[in-house]
Write the structure tokens for this entry.
Amino acid sequence: MSSLLRLATAGSVDDGKSTLVGRLLYDTKSVLADQLDAVTRASVDRGLDTPDLSLLVDGLRSEREQGITIDVAYRYFATPQRSFVLADTPGHVQYTRNTVTGASTAQLAVLLVDARNGVLEQTRRHAAVLAMLGVPRLVLAVNKIDLVDYDESTFEVIAKEFTDHAVSLGYPVGEVLSIPISALQGDNVVTRSENTPWYTGPALLEHLETVPVAPDPHDAPFRLPVQYVIRPRTADYPDYRGYAGQIASGTVRPGDEVVVLPQGLRSTVTGIDTADGPLGEAGSGNSVTVLLDDDLDIARGDLIASAGSAPEPTDELSATVCWLANSALRAGSRVLLKHGAKTVQAFVEEIVARFDEQQLRAVQAPESLELNHIGQVRLRTSEPLPADDYRTSPRTGSFLIIDPKDGDTLAAGLVGVGFPALGDGQAASTDGQGATG
Amino acid sequence: MTAEHTAEPVAPGSGQDAAIDNLAALESEAIHIFREVAGEFDRPVILFSGGKDSTVLLHLAIKAFWPAPVPFPLLHVDTGHNFDEVIEFRDRVVEKYGLRLVVAKVQDWIDDGRLTERPDGTRNPLQTTPLLDTIGEHGFDAVFGGGRRDEERARAKERIFSLRNAFGQWEPRRQRAELWNLYNGRHRPGEHVRVFPLSNWTEFDVWNYIAREKVELPSIYFAHQRDVYLRDGMWLTEGPWGGPRDGEDVHTRTVRYRTVGDGSCTGAVESTATTIEEVIAEVQASRLTERGATRADDRMSEAAMEDRKREGYF
Ligand SMILES: Nc1nc2c(ncn2[C@@H]2O[C@H](COP(=O)(O)OP(=O)(O)O)[C@@H](O)[C@H]2O)c(=O)[nH]1
Ligand SMILES: [Mg+2]
């Protein structure tokens, strides 16, 4: 079975993201006849003589009316080498929350720039969001290369500026690849183009098909957020009590010593159940039901962790947040915090710093965090949380901040320090080692 | 649903079940979603039409809570334009797993004047009102649907937890950020959340999963002989919704259905596929998406689906 790559597009509005996605779908023959008919008809209606491939992804009425992307579109396509889940994200500043949504689970991001405009403010903002989320690999697609006469030096200048920037954000040099493309004409998208003889790297799809996907580390410590307690109380299973959840990291086997947090109760795993039968071992990503030796009081929201390396529950969190709401965050705000399967009340004690993603430096003790700001905060929670550092365990190191009034999601939160610059108050280090996990 | 137990646990370290393939990952994601809803909502319900997506949905719900019973009822919005085989299948499944079934009959809404029959006789668009009324009446706060993002461009934009306002409407511009696998199910009184555990599945994944899990489906999904007539390029069959009009000839054809819906506008495709494997081979070779091939009402306008979703359709 071929492997799966989850990727997201990013970049400023009009840089060609939707056209590129349409091109990838079209050139990999993932567009079925009736969808193409619909797009061709719509393009003709708009007076175009070739199909506008961005219409394959811009599916909302207001998107087609305005010719922009408002929300993430998830598309699925496959080549003989690999299957892809692609999130096409919007470029507008006001829809950055949708870009964050699309990028949060991506293993690779394709960041586009328009060759005529180069790296823009929004390019830098998206690069910062990708670095913060720890998206491990970046491709810079220098698009519309047709509009600069396939000029090598234009490409080189943009590629260098961006690579330096990405490295400052913490990307290792080798994880950023720049490709000159024309999403509209197809140059270097699926096959290498004769129009860019000076470019010797792979076409975009070639790279996507062959880039290694990092597997979840097998030796990471075991974490299972308890979602639901299964107690059938039926004639066949009168005393059954199992703790159901999706393994967030590590592996578990019967006989393992575990600790239930935040209570700190110790126990031993006696079985791992699924509807298909018991398992001898289960790893990260599996939804299972774990049985324990002792009759403990365990509820939804608790965390079962390996006894040898469990996180210390704390009601004081230092975290990086990406603020996604129109209303600002201020110290003293009361919010809800969802971590794993648990939602608790939280109090914003301090906004320590804001990350200036344009200049890559920290602004100490800002008044507030506004829409799209990335900042370092200190939170106090109403109950201790067994949280890990996001860089070592993203699933148990991430949380949402929720508005207690209307239930809206206000921010993406990452336990620990997202950027070197936020940690020590100094300008970002440029050694390229820190920020991506 | 086949949940036969293997007698012996797989040997530790064999790596066989620690590694997770694509279908297993999709299954695991869906089970996670079911359990989140069970943990956070008071009155969830599963939309169940007897079609393949909702049957897979139910299969996953059963697996998510095993060995306990599914802690939610099913809701069928019944257009009255049914295939007998599907209703028979629905009732058999409900019986077998000891489930509770709520049926909202479009006919009842027509009879008491809350709805009027459309001139074209199609009832798919009429399902919205009975659905929303029933959600309100029972106080359902989470409604599981079998929608997939690969079905259509507007669905490709929808979150897994999709908030509906007090009028049951989807507001695409107000969608919440949905990060990692943290789902936000908060809603105010009167609002509810539609939940789509199959969001990231393709049609092909659904069929492969059905084959792998040996999920039983209504017989109309497999090739059979049927009297059909051609309308708008689709093979329709006679039923409670009427039959061929003047000039529409009836032919006996070997056909199967790719979706289950209002019989008046759900077309059959010519096919000889009588097994899951043969159906998969056909799906693979197919050049039309399932909705485009077989649902007349999706062809109406470019934005047909989005408009209906905004109104509160599935
Ligand atoms: N000449 C040229 N035009 C392009 C190229 N890629 C995109 N465009 C055009 O740029 C505009 C914006 O494209 P779109 O895909 O909607 O950008 P998005 O906002 O990043 O999704 C459209 O008019 C496209 O046709 C390209 O490679 N060359
Ligand atoms: Mg776009």
Q: What stands out?
A: Residues 17-205+303-311 of chain B form a domain with the Rossmann fold fold (CATH 3.40.50.620). The pocket of guanosine-5'-diphosphate (ligand 1) is lined by residues A 11, 13-19, 54, 68-69, 91, 143-144, 146-147, 182-184 (CB under 6 Å). Chain B touches chain A through 71 residues (CB under 8 Å).
